[in-house]
Amino acid sequence: MRRRPGLSVRLKLTLSYAGFLAVAGALLLAVVWVFLLRYVPDNSQGLLGVAPNRYLLVRTFAPAAAAAMAFLLGFGLLGGWILAGRMLAPLVRITAAARTAGRGSLSHRIGMEGRQDEFRELADAFDTMLGRLESHVAEQQRFAANASHELRTPLAISQTLLDVARKDPTRDREELLERLGTVNTRAIGLTEALLLLSRSDRGHFTPESVDLSLVAEEAAESLLHLAEQRGITLGVTGGAARTGGSAELLLRMVTNLVQNAVVHNLPAGGTVTVHTGVQGGACVLRVENTGPPVPPDLLATLTEPFQRGTERARTDEHAGVGLGLAIVDSVVRAHHGTLGLVSRPVGGLLVTVRLPRTP
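and the corresponding structure tokens:
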């Protein structure tokens, strides 16, 4: 947006300082006139017929007063210009950093030194914002690269299957359709997960009152058949935990946690426990499962997009697309909650979600 050029802030402050100093000098001279000169008689005779009178004092005082006013005005302009420059120096650095960031360089920091004041508080807030923007942009770039790679895989497989079918007309048609259907289903699931992740990142939803205990029961019921197929005991315990948010996103969050706990459990005989309750003024959801030990270096990356817990799960029909815990983390952040992942000493994972409680 183009604007007409105007006076700089430094010039405005300089004129303000000079004007204030000139007004103060004029008031001082007015005080001298009102409280001193008006008590001097116009004509007075003193010793030898010579005495100070108002006319002589005014004639002597006026040039000196004019010279003092001119000096105050010049001193105010020069001193105001210097003082304004020193005061606005931090703002110049902040403006330069903003222009650098506007050109795409987010690694630059102001690093304002000195004691705390309004400018340094602004500089620190600007540095914090730049740090978050840099982290967010890097995360988005990494996410876009991973998403492109993951979407390219099913498309490449579909193209390969079609090329093979075109070169070999005698190939089993049912097998081809089944494999294409599996690949297509995976691509659709990945696309839906990406859309859901984007929606939860934006936080665009109408909040409503949601009971996590009911959501946990619904999620466990939908995955009970999968747990029975794997010989895993799935249970829901605890009481009501009412929070505010999107019922759809919270259901997807709990479903992802339970499905992740079932898929990454022991081959048979394992357990998955979902517990809901209120603790310390917050709604708490805990999903605990048995299974193989989770290495600490892997635990720190589980909430990143396209990270999978084990290679065994990748070949499974419920392997997912590596966005389960990333979606969980995004939904939790959109609901102003916290997500904690702890590796159980005996194997498996304990996931704790804390959300604000609705009275």
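(Above: one complete record from the training split.) The chain is about 55% helix and 15% strand.
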